[in-house]
Amino acid sequence: MTIGDEKNLLAQPLSMICDSQALADNWRNLQKLSGSAVAGAAIKANGYGLGAAHVAQILQKAGAREFLVAYADEAVAIKDIINPAYIAILHGVSANNVEKIRNIGAIPVLNSPEQIALWKQAGGGRCHIMCDTGMNRLGLSADDIGKLDFSGLDIDIVMSHLASADMDCDQNTVQWAQFLEVKQHFDAQRFSLANSAGIMLGSDYHFDVTRPGLALYGGIARPEMADFIKPVVSFAAEILQIRHIRRGDSVGYCGDFVAPHDMRIATLSIGYADGYKRGFSCKGEFTHQGRMLPVLGRVSMDLTSVDISNARDLNVGDIVYCPFDLQKSEQLTGISQYELLTNLGQRYQRIWV
Ligand SMILES: *Cc1c(COP(=O)(O)O)cnc(C)c1O
Q1: pTM > 0.85: yes or no
Q2: What is the phi/psi pair of residue 113, to 5°?
Q3: Which end of the chain is more exposed for a tag (fewer CB within 10 A), N or C?
């Protein structure tokens, strides 16, 4: 199905249309780009807003084996779909959840001396380890690594995270060199450094496992990825009301849009509570059968107005589409592709095509 072509296919007033084929193809392409390394899949934050269970199912079928979530409960939520032994929990363990993580059999990413001590007290065994190489967020410092005793741990992946892989800057090579240094200290099965953007930095950055997230969902982490990555998400909203406005009339909060001439406008069932951010005010575009429907005035919490002067056939109850081009939306709104995806709300009917 070509998204946007089917008239009134969607009965719901607000739908998120997720393209399974594009998601699977994106993973396969990222796997190819990862060379001899295995491409995992970051499905934290509910699969970057798309729905972790569906995403996991599709990616598993495409061939993905290693999955990453942030919280223990995110692993619990998909444990019937993904064998927990292949789910890495990026936040690691705490006194509150160490037993839970052991019980479900997910693999914690141990980030600090405290987490390593907790895991050992609980019996040790299989784990991943995060090392900091200059981002100063989560992970063992070089000092920690020199001092710690890793006996009793069965370390699968030693990983680090790139702070600036989406840019061309020295920090990438500095982190890469630091990671080689870190590697010397570990007798681990595998090593991993690259996120989506990191995959594009070349085979030196791939090691054994890559960890794409954003690009799976159609995000363009670096400009050269546009050739390999397909869009996955679009929206469909319903026309709730149509009005004719006169030259000089204003639309929406604060009257930010003033009609330069008489217009026919439509009020849509989507707003910033759905993640269609206020940054799209006066800038965003919906479409109907190839025609552009520009957003007029401010996006409200549950409503957005568009110009339908050039689509006179549209009526109340008709469905219009928002292609949600992530790169373009980022440029338009100044909101990162990551935030655009992960802020998508709960009110969508998520439709996988
Ligand atoms: C979220 C995350 C990823 C995925 O990063 P993208 O930039 O979305 O590809 C990889 N590794 C870690 C540690 C993460 O937290």
Answers
A1: yes
A2: -55, -35
A3: N
